[in-house]
Amino acid sequence: MEQPVFEGRPGKLPHWASNLEEHVDKKLLIILRDGRKLIGWLRTFDQFANLLVEHIVERHIIFEEKVFADIYLGTMLIRGENVCLFGEVDPERQDGLTEAPLADVLAKEAQNEAETGPFCALQDLVTKQI
């Protein structure tokens, strides 16, 4: 019979959770299954990789124009199964993007989606550097 995740390790996290533990109280970029890009501070997580993240912004990026706009969302509990990728944000690194008005970015995003389809944006995200 398979051994339960926590058996023999009372009060300790499972082995796979050590990576999450290293990122607590750090600013993360989190990419969700639906393609949304969230940036915020990881505060805690549980054994299911559910994440409690504070000061979240949803970042909308137009790669062709190298512009972005953020929508402030506050504090979120993100279900672990919805996370595709996460990584620490380096505050000293310049990403080459400039901030633009939200209305302009959302309009351009809608135009791009109408021309290419809803799933091409996620494919572009995977093939381009953020």
From TrEMBL:
Superkingdom as given in the UniProt entry: Eukaryota
Localization terms from the record: Cytoplasm; Cytoplasm, P-body
Domain (Sm) ranges: 15-92
SMART domains registered for this protein in UniProt: Sm (SM00651)
Predominant location category: cytoplasm
UniProt cross-references to SUPFAM superfamilies, sorted A to Z: Sm-like ribonucleoproteins
Pfam families: LSM
InterPro entries linked to this entry: Lsm1, LSM_dom_sf, PTHR15588, Sm, Sm_dom_euk/arc
Keywords, alphabetical: Cytoplasm, mRNA processing, Ribonucleoprotein, RNA-binding
Known partners and oligomeric status: LSm subunits form a heteromer with a donut shape.
General function of this protein: Probably involved with other LSm subunits in the general process of degradation of mRNAs.
Family to which the UniProt record says this protein belongs: Belongs to the snRNP Sm proteins family.
Protein name: U6 snRNA-associated Sm-like protein LSm1
Record gene name: LSM1
